[in-house]
Queue: 2 jobs
Job 1
Amino acid sequence: MSNLGSSLGTAIAGTILVAGITATPERSYALAMAALAVAGVIGLVAAVMLPAEIHMRVAQEAPQPES
């Protein structure tokens, strides 16, 4: 999952940097870093929302076939 996040962040920042959205390279870099910060905060919120404990469901006991 970490590799997926790194790849997505690199893709977002790279796209913003080479797209030429702003007039100056400094603003483009700042916009790319802001986009990465927003993506990081979204990831942090998603991680906080995960349950703290994993509850496993126990299969209902079925009668064992006689051998």
Note: The helical segments are 2-19, 25-48.
Job 2
Amino acid sequence: MSYPKKGEVRRLMPDECEGVMAFPPDWTVPSKVEWDEETYDTLRYHALGNAVTPPVAEWLAHRIKAHLDRAIGLPHHERAHGTSRRAAGVACESPFAPRVAEASTN
């Protein structure tokens, strides 16, 4: 970000970085503040720099789920509606558990 008249670059504040990355306000604020303001902001920038934004994580999770559903041949109606396997007597909620257990014993 730059100032139009001065041409100087302005560093975004941690609160602004959280907003740009789609985190809730004050997401990186620790419960105890034991440092000076500069160290405190540096730690917040560090946390944000190492973070994956929630929309990206959600997108990746959906892509991985779709791939796994196709790979194990999960019926379309279960893929579309997330049918619970508990009704079928399966203890684990994951539709992948039986296949994963089977693969781990081979």
Note: Confidence is low (pLDDT under 50) at residues 84-106.
